[in-house]
Amino acid sequence: MKRWIPLRHIQTKPPIPFATIEGFIRDIEQSKELVRDGKILGTALKFAYVLGFRKREILELRIEHVLDENLAVRSAIIFDGEQISIPVPFTQTIADYCSYLRKYRKKLLPHWPFFPDRKRDKPYDEATIGRHINHFSKIAGCDITFEKIRQSGICRFYDLLGAIGPGQSVQEVALSKTAKFARVKSIIHAYNILIGKIDPPGKRTNSSAAPSKLIPAEDPVERIRAAVNLSETAAMEIIEKDLPKIGRSLSKIAELRNEFFKAISGAASLDSPVKARLVESFDAHLLSIGFMVNQADGSLSVLEDFIYED
Predict the structure, then answer these.
(1) Residue 211 has pLDDT above 70, yes or no
(2) 67, β-bridge pairs
(3) Which candidate, 22, 290, 63, 58, places its Cα nearest to that of 156?
(4) Which phi and psi (to 5°) does residue 2 adopt?
(5) By C-alpha distance, which of 281, 253, 308 is closest to 6?
C-alpha cells in the first residue's frame, strides 16, 4: 500500500492547549456539585487525555479491566483484547481514584463500572457524560469536548516522544507508536490528528443507497461529481479512500480539487456548513498525502519533507 511518511518531526496542532485541558480537568475534580461528580468525570477525562481512551471505552470500562484480583492497579489495562500500558506516574492517580470510589461504595466488585454515574450508580451513558462536560465547559467559558481532549492527548503523547532526528525510519516509528497509543488503524490517521485535522462537527447527510455502488468506478473526476451529488457521506468516502490512490501527479490533484469545488458549489442539496466541512476535509487530506494548498491563490505545491513509498 502506498503512503506518505514525513521526514521531519511534526509540529503538532492540538485542538486545545495542554495547559487549558489540565486546568479544566483540575477544576472539575475540585467541583463540589452533588449531581455531577467532579472526581469521577475528571478522572474519566484524564483517561482520554493521558491514555487516549475513546468515549465508548470509558463507558464500557469495568473494575476488573483496571484492577487485579487483589484490587491492585494492573501494569496494563486489559480491554477489548488489548493491553493498554499505564505510565508509572499515572498508576498513583488510578489508585487515588479507587480509594475515592471505596468511600461511597465500600467495596469494588469486578463487574462494576469503573466510571459510574454517581447519581444512579450505573455506568455513565454517552448523553450524560456529554451534558456534564458541556456544563463545565460553559463554566470555563471555552469550547471543550471529549474528543478534543482525547486528540490533544494524542498530540501530547507524540510530543513527549521527543524531537527525534530526521529520517523516514525514525518518523515512521514515532507515528506507529502514536497510532498504537490512539488505537487507530493507520499512521496516516494518526498524522491527521497531529496536524489538527479534526473530524468536523454536526450530523452528516445519509444516503438511502450505498454510495460506492452508485459512483462510477473509473474516472476520479466523475467519481467526485457523483459523490457530491449523492450526499456528504458519499463525498467524504471518496475523499478518504480515493484521494491517496491518485499518486504523485500534481496536475491530476489540481484538476481533481478544481472539479471537487465546482461540484460543491453547484450542489443544491448541500448547505453552506456542509460545503465548508468538505472543503476543509479535502485540503486536510491533501496535506496528509504531501500536497500544500496556498490559501492566498489556491495553488498547489509538493511538500519536499515527504517520501512516497510502496
Answers:
(1) no
(2) 73
(3) 22
(4) -85, 145
(5) 308
Residue type, 21: I
d(CA 231, CA 60): 33
Q: Which pLDDT belongs to residue 163?
A: 54
Cell numbers 472539479 correspond to 259
203: left (phi over 0), alpha (psi -120 to 50) or beta: beta
**Cβ of 157: how many Cβ atoms within 10 Å?**
23
DSSP state of 120: T
- The pair phi, psi for residue 78, each rounded to 5°, is -100, 110
Half-sphere exposure of 211 (CA within 13 A, CB side): 21
Compute the CA torsion angle 18, 36, 134, 25 (nearest 10 deg). Answer: 0
- Between strands 122-123 and 291-293, the pairing is unpaired
Provide the 3-class DSSP secondary structure of residue 275. Answer: helix
Pick left, alpha or beta for residue 290 (phi over 0 → left; psi -120 to 50 → alpha; otherwise beta): left
Question: Which position has the grid cell 457530491?
Answer: 228
Residue 165 DSSP one-character state: P
One-letter amino acid identity for 187?
A: I
What is the domain partition of the chain in residue ranges?
Answer: 3-14+153-194, 18-143, 211-309
Residue 307 pLDDT > 50: no
Instruction: Determine the pLDDT at residue 2.
Output: 44
pLDDT > 50? residue 1: no
Dihedral of the alpha carbons of 284, 285, 288, 290, in degrees to the nearest 10: -100
